[in-house]
Amino acid sequence: MSTDFRIANIIRSTTLIERNEQKAVFISFALVFVLMAAYYMLRPVRDAMASDWSNTEISLLWNIQFFLSLGFVAIYGLAVSRIEFRRLVPSVYGFFAISFVSFHFGAVMVEDPVLLDKGFYLWVSLFSLFHVSVFWSLMADLYNKEQSKRLFGFIAVGASAGAIVGPIVATLAAQTIGSESLMLSASLIMLIPLPIVYYLQLLKRTELHNESIQVDLSHMKIGGNPLAGFKDFFTSPYLMGIAAFILLYTAISSFAYFEQTNLLRDYDRDQRTQILAMLALVVNILTFALGFFATSRLTTKLGMPTTLALVPFFMCAALLILAFAPILTVLLALQVARQSGNYGITRPAREMLFTSVSRESRFKAKPVVDVAIYRGGDAVWSSAFALLTDGMGLGMAAMAAIGAGIAAVWAGTGMKLGSVFNRRTETSQNSEFASENSAAEYSTN
Hints:
Helix content is 85%, strand content 0%. By secondary structure, the chain is mainly alpha-helical. The longest helix is centred in the last third of the chain and has 49 residues, at 396-444.
């Protein structure tokens, strides 16, 4: 028995990955690792730029981001309906990779890079909306349903690993080669997915033998009534409740982001990049730990109302502390708690809320909530923050007190929404139970 065969059998016994799947799975793991590592190298560079601008300028960028996101989602939906999927994924990644490389060389060529920096800021934010979504669409096109149940958990670890390694690289690079060179490095890394995608599509035919598998992206295509999602949204109090919960979250995240930006103004861009990369590293490690050890236990032990309200209650207390001690260390601790709590607890629980709506509503109305409401919330709250700080001159202590009040409302909304979810789930289960009993009675008769 050859060494390769023995290794393949060991992998199969420990991970449930069959021999013919192993090459494709490990390459899929590497692909999402590269994507997440590159993004988390670019993200600290993006956020470090923000401290060079006023709150009003950042608010304007967030408002532009809202309309840019809506437009790009529409363009992508149109592309889904017109371009063959095996060409669509490389096109999306290639487009972003070339654009990021162009930003770096553009910064070298122009005398005043401010507008280019703001364009880069918007572009990284836009990239964050698409790169993971496109990746999982690719995975759904490569593997069949039985394989996805066994393999996707392992592949997802690659995303977590990349989200941890990216900030480490950014921290070290900011100290040695500087944030500008870091941007070029991350941009060049973005070129790596192109040959990987094509090779995975080859493995789909040669080793996985899944030629008949075609990912279903019908929910992303533009067709029918483009306002159908908005109609479903505005006629459902439950979906509007989820939107209210998200809007209150964006209020707190906007506050924390703007105050973080203000407190980092005294540092140069490389120092900011290093601080923000370390922040991302701690957040991703905590998120991984929460997702692995805590999230499922919290929803099971505490229930949805308490789980949804847990992070908002904590943020309310943290913001009150910040009001009395408005310093960078306290704010960074607050940011770590907010981001890791959101990614590890609040976001998974929020996604569970959509399991109690119909499949059609999920496809039509969820993009309205995830894009229009979320990005719209960023735009509205950033404008409000700029008005209160640049316009009215409120300081961090006053803004923290206002934020604590918003967090308290957010917590109450989470409790109410979790209770509604429980009632809807219980009603659905009772209906299914009644249907099963009726069917059993009919068959007996």
